[in-house]
Amino acid sequence: MTKKPIELYFADTPNGWKISIMLEECKMPYKIIPVNIGKGDQFKPSFLKISPNNRIPALIDPNGPGGKPISIFESGAILQYLGRKSGKFYPKNERERSNVDQWLFWQMGGLGPMAGQAHHFRMYAPQFTKEKLTYSKKRYTNEVNRLYGVMNKQLRKNDYLAGRYSIADMACWGWVLPSKISSKMQGQKLKEFPHLFKWFEKVGARPAVQKGLDVGKVMRMLAKASRSGLSEKTKEAKKARSLLFNQKAR
Ligand SMILES: N[C@@H](CCC(=O)N[C@@H](CS)C(=O)NCC(=O)O)C(=O)O
Question: Which of 5, 22, 72, 192 is most buried (most C-beta within 10 Å)?
Answer without folding.
Answer: 22
